[in-house]
Amino acid sequence: MLPLRLVRTSRPGALTRRALVACAAGAVGFLLLSALSYAVAHPGRPETAAARLLWCAVPLAALAHLAAATVRADPSVRPREGLDAVGVGPARLPLLAAVTAGLCCAAGCALALPAFVHLRGGLGGVLDAVPLAGAAGELLGAGRPLPRAAVLTLLAVPPLAAAAASALATRLRAVPSVVPTGSPAGLPDPAAVLPHRAPPVPTGLPWGVTVTAVGLVVETHAADRLAASAGSGGVPLPASLDGLGPGVVGGWLVIALGLVLAGPGLVHLCGALLALGRPGVLRLLSGRALREEAPRVGRPLGVLCAVAAGALGSARLHGAAPGAGEAAAGPLTVLGAAVVLVCAVAAALGSAAEFRAARAAATAGLLQLGVSRRMLRAAAALRVVVLLGVLAPLTWLVAELATAPLAR
């Protein structure tokens, strides 16, 4: 009952984020059911069915990322005296966060199941007169019964993934930040606002580069196998990305994972570039903020880079496929892309708000020390420009390398 009470008494912003998580979970459940219906309706195409199921891992990962970002920004699952009084201390907060996220996603999946069956045309009776009944019967493999155990198993995946991500985010929420301390005169200590100790360097950049390289190797090997099986010098690109095979899809997913792992290190690198040489006040403030908050904002930016690289690569392959000019993206592809994009943008906006809240104390201290608001806004703009200048070319390069084995 405690998670339900926390959800009911949450602020409108938190309720909006939870509603977005529930909608995303419903969309992911719908995509998983559509992959199951395709496998049941086309038993002679196991590779295409496996590729469709692998593609569902992309919106599923985006959902887990959004659920974790929502929990980090949710004040109801933070340590406080009221929760301690009912026996929910810091050690049990991950369980509370997992249950809350799981309930939201379970509600979304519970709504996705009747919507899927209705569009498939399986409800029957009076509901056949409801608009859109059986409207997507051909697309969703109508006429073949779906295994109930498989349906329940697939619908349990989004709540479990979101619950696991939320519990992990709550456990790892404690990120070191700069909190200025007050002096007897009411002014903050300058050493607390701008400490002399350099922020720790994230260790994920080498791992991210390695994982990205492994994904490129896997994708290149899978593309060579496709070209050899086709008996031509290149890969036979289908009008839909579902026909690329599990190997290529798996390679793309590994590349995206590498970008996410490298995100904090890249943000820290941007801060280090700003602090090169003998920086002035503007560069010093911008670089210090990026290096301090790299663990907090690096992963969401890595997810955005992975989404942008996937969009660029998909657009290039769609243009290179035979007859792609006449073939439009299917509704399931549009749904999956919308889920990934909305989750990535919402998580990035939530992390930006969390970044601003985490630096509120330091900003107040700098204002008391005489730093103008104009300089603080200029420092924020400089951070954005440097991040775009470093991450945008890198995203384009990864997209080109990922599509080169397929577009040759």
From TrEMBL:
Keywords: Membrane, Transmembrane, Transmembrane helix
Residues passing through the membrane, by range: 49-72, 93-117, 123-142, 149-169, 252-276, 297-315, 327-349, 380-399
Highest taxon of the lineage: Bacteria
UniProt key word Transmembrane: yes
The protein, known as: Integral membrane protein
Organism: Streptomyces desertarenae
